[in-house]
Amino acid sequence: MAKRYDDVRRKRQKKSSIIVRDDKGDFASTKTDNDIESHLKKHRSIILKAAQEQKIDPFLLGAILIDEYCRMGWDDWLDWLGALNIKNTSVGIAQIKLSTAREIILKQYYNPAPGKITAKSPSLQIWFYLYQPGHSIQFSAAAIRISIDFWRAKKVDISKLNKVLAYLYSAGYAKNIKGATTKRCVQISTEFYQMAKSILS
Question: What does the domain layout of the chain look like in residue ranges?
Answer without folding.
Answer: 2-6+42-200
